[in-house]
Design goal:
Length: 310
Amino acid sequence: MTQEDLRERVRAGGLLVPGAPALVLLSGGRDSVCLLDIAVQICGRDSVRALHVNYGLRGGASDADEVSCREVCARLEVPLEVVRATRPTDAPGNLQAWARDVRYAAATRLTAADGALVAAAHTQTDQVETILYRLAASPGRRALLGMEARAGRLIRPLLDVTREETAAWCRARGLSWREDASNDDEAFARTRVRAGLVPAMRDVHPQAENNVLRTAELLRDEAAVLDEVVRTALAGRNRIALTQLASLPPALGRLVVRRLAEDATGRPGARAAARLHDLLALDQQDAALDLGDGARAVVQDGMLRFARTP
């Protein structure tokens, strides 16, 4: 695989467009350095900026990451925005979720004026790890769909590129990168997936990772069909009669409930879908039930709708 082959493969994905503004999330690791270089080659230097968030979590190593990002951007002649963040002691969620929220919030702020796409350097390797982690941590079909190549203004141009290929690109281009020691810390579930589960699957079958990716691709195609079935069942409404919900096959009923809950709350609604039986047992005239994930089911005159939990 030559540099030209890899660049053209990314270009063919259509996420990076010549002349279109792009903000690359630059951690300093091999994947993000590779993405920044390819983005410059495809979009043009004047269209690309980079964002680095220094969380200060690893002391001097975090500062060294920032220095490395500045050096890479100086070499590629790309403007770099650095944001420093300190996690509040009462911040909800886990450390990685907080860091992700800070990163995307900063990217949203920086691209508000020009509407630039935000490019994250998730690779095919990350996709496999994400699918396996979600499968272990959360039930349901969506766990197997993996990350989307594009979600709003967030794009992932390297989802068809492996971590080995990004390293080879950087070496061939003489671009240095940083290794984050926390990536080997088995206190993080993702590290345990990477270090234990993925190698174990390769031992079972050498094409295990490709088979995971192919399964996710097939399920995404099927998900589009299921989404259309749900739209047909709802007929453009944000509610459904309990009698109609009861008449649907249970699998479709759960999908309808999930869609209504997610549309109302703006967040995943797996818990709501799992409570289909409880919803069907609600009084036909006037009832309410909190289902978790911020979703409240409300029944009025036999019609079920969802609202956010106060």
